[in-house]
Amino acid sequence: MRELKFLNQFFWKYRWRLLLGIVFICVSNYFRVLQPQVIREALDLVIEQVNSYRMYDGFDLGVEYFGVLSYTLMLFGGLVLLLALLMGFFLYLTRQTIIVMSRLIEYDLREVIFDHYQELSLDFYKRNNTGDLMSRITEDVNKVRMYLGPAVMYCANLLSTIALVVVSMLAVSPTLTLYTLIPLPFLAISIYYVSNIIHTRSTFIQQQLSKLTSVAQEVFSGIRVVKSYVRERQQVNYFAQESEQYKEMSMNLAKVDAWFFPLMVFMVGASTIITVYVGGLQVVAGNISAGNIAEFVIYVNMLTWPVTAIGWIASIVQQAAASQKRINEFLETKTSISDPAPDDKHQLRGDITFEKVSFVYPDTGIRAIDKVDFQLKSGEKLAIIGRTGSGKTTVADLLLRMYDVTEGRILVDGKDIREQGLANLRRQIGYVPQDVFLFSDNIHNNIAFGASHDPSREEVEQFARYAAVYDDIAGLTLGFDTMVGERGVTLSGGQKQRVSIARALIKHPEIVILDDCLSAVDTNTEQQILGYFNEALADKTAIIITHRIYGHLKFDKIIVLEDGGIAEMGTHEELIKNGGYYSEIVERQMTEEEEA
Ligand SMILES: Nc1ncnc2c1ncn2[C@@H]1O[C@H](COP(=O)(O)OP(=O)(O)OP(=O)(O)O)[C@@H](O)[C@H]1O
Predict the structure, then answer these.
(1) Distance from the alpha carbon of residue 395 to the mean position of ligand 1, in angstroms
(2) ipTM of the complex
(3) Which chain regions cross the lipid bilayer (predicted)?
(4) What's the pLDDT tens digit per position in 163-182?
(5) What residue ranges line ligand 1, CB within 6 angstroms?
(6) How many CB atoms lie within 10 A of CB 320?
(7) Half-sphere exposure of 513 toward its Cβ, with a 13 Å CA cutoff?
(8) Is the pTM of this model over 0.90?
(9) What is the domain range of residue 490?
């Protein structure tokens, strides 16, 4: 239960609501407990008066007497109705305070978790799968809310009902109270066990359901592959297998679920029989009135739900503690990339220095970068070339501080990037990643996403022109308002790359990193984009990771990476003279172009 302590800060935040809710529930229960007392009075009155009425039967006085009795009973009926209304009104207020409080805390908690998720570094996202992140912020928060709202409300209800009912019962007959209450602890314990079994089985069902969902999601996302490999039947069979398991589990749950109400009715029935039997003996002995038996039967019914709720509350609290534990695990995870100066807003010049930088991926132990040493002055252009897996993307990730270097230092404007404002650094780097990701939104918003201001349509269009994608977008029926699906399904690979370039450029960055972002673009478009780069990025520092050599873009430095280390470094002319990997691909590319 230690885990739930984390939530106390929220209870404190909404303490007045909580307190008011508890007061309302006590008032509501007070009116509820008065009802059986009014009914007892009415019943005793009827029993007593019916005997007297028989004496006047056949006389005129008898009719009058009957009129007065009916009127008094109507008054009692009206009183019970009034008490029920008052009780209902305060119950409404209870829900308006406690359940609303739980919804407010749910909102706060989600925000805290979401904020924290955003702060965490890439290695956290590599370690944990998206489904797990999602379920903690949705299902686990839901389970915790059940504790914050219903469990707290039923707990307050339980305590106040038991206190008020038991005090009223004791005032009538301590012996009868004792006998009446005997079956109730058995009810609480058995409901607790049944609830626990239900919970365990529900958890398995939940897991199976999320497995089923991910199977379906994966098949639908990869539907092209499934269709092209004619694997529909296998997928259907696999889905049916998983569905069958889900069905079996649900049937098992239904079997236990079926015990819940019969058990409750049996225990309440036992309690009622004891009340009538022991109460009857006491009436005969003249200790209590017949009306008291009716009063006790109503009390027993009043206690049924709160006592049943003990088992239920215990189960909710257990589930909430387990969920909060999972939430706390992530909340306690510290980001490995800290921001030493969150308010830093200084303008970068764009000098970049890698000083004997090495990097080992923590999860795989792969040494992706090995003693990389280079310097770029503000405005210089660097091309990084190398075979796949040679560490090119890792260089970009390190400069953006997606990871921190294992050895060595990266300096921007002469200062270690680990000592600079992280947000400020990232804000001034325009990064186009290799695997383009577009949000499920329209094209305008996807491009505007990069800007620190709210850019006008004209500005967005201008940057789309720079990225040579304007004509493609203008050709769509909805133009810049076209929605791009979950993964930009309506755009081709090359179009997505260019939208992603426009998004990076609209930031007006001081440093630009393009990671193989022209791979899906034809030569003409490539020339168009590079023409803009030459002009607009003339004074910006740029790192271009590529597999192709761009004759149109003049690089101050070219680095050839091999197994994370620098195999060749120099200008185009120097590397051609070297006769290494670089000259090899230049030659191959020239032959290809000639052949084309
Ligand atoms: N997140 C990661 N966790 C563990 N190892 C990784 C991770 N990302 C990359 N690697 C490994 O680091 C090495 C360098 O990868 P990197 O992506 O930097 O290469 P690259 O030169 O950009 O390749 P490509 O040209 O195919 O994009 C590879 O061996 C790769 O398997």
Answers:
(1) 10
(2) 0.94
(3) 12-31, 68-93, 151-172, 178-198, 259-284, 296-317
(4) 999 999 999 889 889 988 88
(5) 126, 361, 363-364, 366, 368, 386, 388-394, 434
(6) 23
(7) 22
(8) no
(9) 435-508
